[in-house]
Design brief:
single chain, alpha/beta, Rossmann fold, 9 strands
Length: about 230
Protein backbone atom coordinates (compact mmCIF):
# COMPACT_ATOMS: atom_id res chain seq x y z
CA UNK A 1 0.00 0.00 0.00
CA UNK A 2 1.50 3.31 -1.11
CA UNK A 3 1.62 5.92 1.65
CA UNK A 4 1.28 9.57 0.63
CA UNK A 5 4.25 11.52 1.96
CA UNK A 6 6.62 8.55 2.14
CA UNK A 7 9.92 9.21 0.35
CA UNK A 8 10.77 5.51 0.32
CA UNK A 9 8.96 2.29 1.13
CA UNK A 10 9.96 -1.33 1.66
CA UNK A 11 7.63 -4.29 2.18
CA UNK A 12 8.23 -7.94 3.01
CA UNK A 13 5.58 -10.47 4.00
CA UNK A 14 5.08 -8.94 7.44
CA UNK A 15 7.42 -5.93 7.70
CA UNK A 16 6.62 -2.50 6.23
CA UNK A 17 9.21 0.29 6.35
CA UNK A 18 8.55 3.94 5.47
CA UNK A 19 10.88 6.90 5.22
CA UNK A 20 8.37 9.40 6.55
CA UNK A 21 7.61 11.71 9.45
CA UNK A 22 5.56 9.55 11.82
CA UNK A 23 3.11 12.43 12.36
CA UNK A 24 2.34 12.45 8.63
CA UNK A 25 1.88 8.68 8.71
CA UNK A 26 -0.40 8.60 11.76
CA UNK A 27 -2.68 11.53 10.84
CA UNK A 28 -4.79 9.53 8.39
CA UNK A 29 -4.91 6.29 10.38
CA UNK A 30 -8.17 5.13 11.96
CA UNK A 31 -8.43 4.85 15.74
CA UNK A 32 -6.81 1.69 17.15
CA UNK A 33 -5.18 0.83 13.84
CA UNK A 34 -2.46 -1.01 15.77
CA UNK A 35 -2.63 -3.43 18.68
CA UNK A 36 0.66 -2.27 20.16
CA UNK A 37 3.07 0.62 19.73
CA UNK A 38 6.67 -0.06 20.76
CA UNK A 39 8.43 3.27 20.37
CA UNK A 40 11.71 4.95 21.24
CA UNK A 41 11.21 8.66 20.55
CA UNK A 42 14.00 11.22 21.12
CA UNK A 43 14.45 11.99 24.82
CA UNK A 44 15.93 15.45 24.31
CA UNK A 45 19.19 14.65 26.14
CA UNK A 46 21.71 15.26 23.36
CA UNK A 47 22.33 11.66 22.30
CA UNK A 48 22.18 12.36 18.55
CA UNK A 49 25.88 11.82 17.86
CA UNK A 50 28.97 13.97 18.19
CA UNK A 51 30.09 12.40 21.47
CA UNK A 52 33.25 10.55 22.43
CA UNK A 53 32.50 8.07 25.21
CA UNK A 54 34.90 7.56 28.10
CA UNK A 55 35.23 4.47 30.28
CA UNK A 56 37.29 4.56 33.48
CA UNK A 57 38.82 1.16 32.79
CA UNK A 58 39.57 2.05 29.14
CA UNK A 59 40.24 5.81 29.16
CA UNK A 60 41.34 5.97 25.52
CA UNK A 61 38.81 3.55 24.04
CA UNK A 62 36.35 6.14 22.76
CA UNK A 63 38.54 9.21 22.37
CA UNK A 64 40.38 8.59 19.11
CA UNK A 65 37.47 8.36 16.67
CA UNK A 66 34.07 10.03 16.50
CA UNK A 67 31.76 7.17 15.55
CA UNK A 68 28.49 9.07 15.08
CA UNK A 69 28.36 12.51 13.46
CA UNK A 70 26.12 15.09 15.14
CA UNK A 71 22.68 15.11 13.52
CA UNK A 72 20.54 17.34 15.79
CA UNK A 73 17.51 15.05 15.86
CA UNK A 74 17.40 14.49 19.63
CA UNK A 75 14.50 16.87 20.27
CA UNK A 76 11.54 15.74 22.38
CA UNK A 77 8.43 15.19 20.25
CA UNK A 78 5.48 17.57 20.69
CA UNK A 79 2.60 16.64 22.99
CA UNK A 80 0.45 16.00 19.93
CA UNK A 81 2.69 13.06 19.06
CA UNK A 82 1.56 11.24 22.18
CA UNK A 83 -2.09 12.09 21.52
CA UNK A 84 -1.82 10.56 18.07
CA UNK A 85 0.10 7.55 19.37
CA UNK A 86 -2.57 6.80 21.95
CA UNK A 87 -5.26 7.30 19.32
CA UNK A 88 -3.85 4.86 16.75
CA UNK A 89 -2.73 2.09 19.15
CA UNK A 90 -4.55 0.07 21.78
CA UNK A 91 -1.48 -0.42 23.98
CA UNK A 92 1.90 1.27 24.19
CA UNK A 93 5.46 0.68 25.33
CA UNK A 94 7.28 4.03 25.35
CA UNK A 95 11.02 4.08 25.99
CA UNK A 96 12.19 7.12 27.93
CA UNK A 97 8.80 7.42 29.60
CA UNK A 98 10.42 9.16 32.55
CA UNK A 99 11.28 12.06 30.22
CA UNK A 100 7.67 12.37 29.05
CA UNK A 101 5.72 12.41 32.31
CA UNK A 102 3.75 15.54 31.43
CA UNK A 103 3.07 14.42 27.87
CA UNK A 104 1.90 10.94 28.82
CA UNK A 105 0.01 12.05 31.97
CA UNK A 106 -1.26 8.52 32.60
CA UNK A 107 -0.43 6.34 35.57
CA UNK A 108 0.96 2.88 35.01
CA UNK A 109 1.64 -0.14 37.20
CA UNK A 110 3.88 -1.68 34.59
CA UNK A 111 7.16 0.08 33.98
CA UNK A 112 9.95 -1.78 32.22
CA UNK A 113 13.52 -1.40 33.42
CA UNK A 114 16.40 -2.10 31.07
CA UNK A 115 19.46 -2.87 33.19
CA UNK A 116 22.30 -2.08 30.79
CA UNK A 117 25.30 -2.92 32.99
CA UNK A 118 27.45 -0.66 30.81
CA UNK A 119 29.23 1.75 33.14
CA UNK A 120 31.28 4.68 31.92
CA UNK A 121 29.52 8.01 31.39
CA UNK A 122 26.21 6.46 30.31
CA UNK A 123 23.16 5.74 32.45
CA UNK A 124 23.00 2.36 34.18
CA UNK A 125 19.61 1.72 32.61
CA UNK A 126 16.55 3.03 30.79
CA UNK A 127 12.86 3.10 31.66
CA UNK A 128 9.85 2.36 29.47
CA UNK A 129 6.33 3.45 30.35
CA UNK A 130 3.64 0.94 29.37
CA UNK A 131 -0.13 0.91 29.27
CA UNK A 132 -0.31 -2.63 30.66
CA UNK A 133 -1.64 -3.46 34.12
CA UNK A 134 1.10 -5.84 35.08
CA UNK A 135 4.04 -5.96 37.47
CA UNK A 136 7.27 -4.06 36.84
CA UNK A 137 9.72 -6.18 34.84
CA UNK A 138 13.49 -5.95 34.32
CA UNK A 139 15.49 -6.88 31.21
CA UNK A 140 19.21 -7.34 31.80
CA UNK A 141 21.47 -7.02 28.82
CA UNK A 142 24.38 -4.98 27.52
CA UNK A 143 23.54 -2.51 24.71
CA UNK A 144 26.16 -4.16 22.49
CA UNK A 145 24.53 -7.62 22.51
CA UNK A 146 24.77 -9.05 19.00
CA UNK A 147 26.79 -6.16 17.53
CA UNK A 148 30.34 -7.49 17.92
CA UNK A 149 31.20 -5.32 20.88
CA UNK A 150 29.42 -2.32 19.41
CA UNK A 151 31.41 -2.34 16.16
CA UNK A 152 28.31 -3.11 14.08
CA UNK A 153 26.03 -0.52 15.64
CA UNK A 154 24.59 1.90 13.08
CA UNK A 155 22.79 4.35 15.38
CA UNK A 156 23.94 6.18 18.55
CA UNK A 157 20.90 5.05 20.56
CA UNK A 158 20.55 1.61 19.00
CA UNK A 159 18.78 -0.92 21.20
CA UNK A 160 19.59 -4.64 20.93
CA UNK A 161 17.36 -7.04 19.02
CA UNK A 162 17.33 -9.24 22.13
CA UNK A 163 15.56 -6.47 24.06
CA UNK A 164 12.78 -6.22 21.48
CA UNK A 165 12.42 -9.99 21.31
CA UNK A 166 11.98 -9.99 25.09
CA UNK A 167 9.30 -7.28 24.81
CA UNK A 168 7.40 -9.21 22.16
CA UNK A 169 7.60 -12.45 24.14
CA UNK A 170 6.19 -10.77 27.25
CA UNK A 171 3.72 -8.21 25.86
CA UNK A 172 2.64 -9.33 22.38
CA UNK A 173 1.32 -12.24 20.35
CA UNK A 174 2.10 -13.07 16.70
CA UNK A 175 -1.40 -12.07 15.57
CA UNK A 176 -0.87 -8.45 16.67
CA UNK A 177 -0.17 -5.47 14.42
CA UNK A 178 2.69 -3.35 15.78
CA UNK A 179 4.02 0.14 15.02
CA UNK A 180 7.42 1.70 15.72
CA UNK A 181 7.32 5.45 15.01
CA UNK A 182 11.07 6.08 15.31
CA UNK A 183 12.81 3.15 13.63
CA UNK A 184 16.45 4.20 13.90
CA UNK A 185 18.52 1.02 13.53
CA UNK A 186 15.28 -1.00 13.09
CA UNK A 187 16.13 -3.60 15.73
CA UNK A 188 12.40 -3.69 16.46
CA UNK A 189 11.61 -4.76 12.89
CA UNK A 190 14.11 -7.62 12.96
CA UNK A 191 12.53 -8.85 16.20
CA UNK A 192 9.02 -8.48 14.74
CA UNK A 193 10.02 -10.39 11.61
CA UNK A 194 11.33 -13.31 13.66
CA UNK A 195 8.29 -13.16 15.96
CA UNK A 196 5.95 -13.38 12.97
CA UNK A 197 3.78 -10.34 13.66
CA UNK A 198 2.78 -7.66 11.16
CA UNK A 199 4.78 -4.49 11.84
CA UNK A 200 5.14 -0.96 10.49
CA UNK A 201 8.18 1.27 11.01
CA UNK A 202 8.58 5.00 10.34
CA UNK A 203 12.00 6.66 10.08
CA UNK A 204 12.35 10.22 8.81
CA UNK A 205 16.15 10.33 8.38
CA UNK A 206 17.30 9.07 4.97
CA UNK A 207 20.63 7.70 6.19
CA UNK A 208 19.11 5.84 9.13
CA UNK A 209 16.28 4.56 6.96
CA UNK A 210 18.64 3.15 4.33
CA UNK A 211 21.09 1.57 6.75
CA UNK A 212 18.28 0.21 8.93
CA UNK A 213 16.43 -1.22 5.93
CA UNK A 214 19.59 -2.92 4.70
CA UNK A 215 20.13 -4.36 8.16
CA UNK A 216 16.62 -5.86 8.07
CA UNK A 217 17.13 -7.24 4.56
CA UNK A 218 20.51 -8.74 5.47
CA UNK A 219 18.94 -10.46 8.47
CA UNK A 220 16.13 -11.90 6.33
CA UNK A 221 18.57 -13.12 3.69
CA UNK A 222 20.77 -14.74 6.32
CA UNK A 223 17.78 -16.68 7.66
CA UNK A 224 16.99 -17.95 4.15
CA UNK A 225 20.44 -19.52 3.94
CA UNK A 226 19.56 -21.92 6.76
Amino acid sequence: MEIIGAKQEYHSDNIHLYQIDCMDYMKDLPDNAFDLAIVDPPYGIGEDGGKRRIKKDRPNSYTNKLKYAKKNWDIKPPSNYFKELFRVSRNQIIWGGNFFVEEISKNSNCWIIWDKNIGGDQADGELAWTSFKMAIRIFKGHPFIGTNGGKKRIHPTQKPIALYKWLLKNYATPDMKIIDTHGGSMSSMIACHDFGCDAVCCEIDKEYYNTGKQRVINHMNQLKLF
